[in-house]
């Protein structure tokens, strides 16, 4: 499987085919919890980068530490910031949004150094 390094605006502009595997980086917010008819839990959120928002679908049972991945970090100035995340997944349509989104397969948390994490078990790459 080939994974394409992409950007939020490129995916939203439908520059990839549905089903393409891509990696994209940004800040995640607007997390909303959903429960399917079959009873499985999942969330949608927006990945922001370059002034554009990409809707993403994440199935948290895949990511045991999902909440911890989203935890903010403290800069040396004392300011709390959301982490930068790298998401890899398949381009697709989420909840009938009119623009392509991303069905997430993996999440990597990237943090600018130096940082103090809320939970020492979470590591930045």
Report on the architecture of this protein.
This protein is mainly beta and 125 residues long. It has a single domain, classed as Nucleic acid-binding proteins (OB fold (Dihydrolipoamide Acetyltransferase, E2P)), CATH 2.40.50.140. Helix content is 7%, strand content 47%. It is built from 2 helices and 9 strands. The protein has helices at 8-12, 66-69; strands at 3-5, 21-35, 41-49, 52-58, 73-74, 80-81, 84-92, 101-110, 116-117. The chain has a 5-stranded mixed beta barrel. β5 (73-74) and β6 (80-81) form a beta hairpin. It starts with a strand and ends in an 8-residue tail after the last strand. The relative contact order is 0.23. Residues 113-123 have low confidence and may be disordered.
Summary tags:
single chain, 125 residues, mainly beta, OB fold (Dihydrolipoamide Acetyltransferase, E2P), five-stranded mixed β-barrel, three-stranded antiparallel beta sheet, 2 helices, globular, disordered C terminus
Summarize the structure in short.
This protein is mainly beta. 7% of the residues lie in helices and 47% in strands. β2 (21-35) and β3 (41-49) form a beta hairpin.
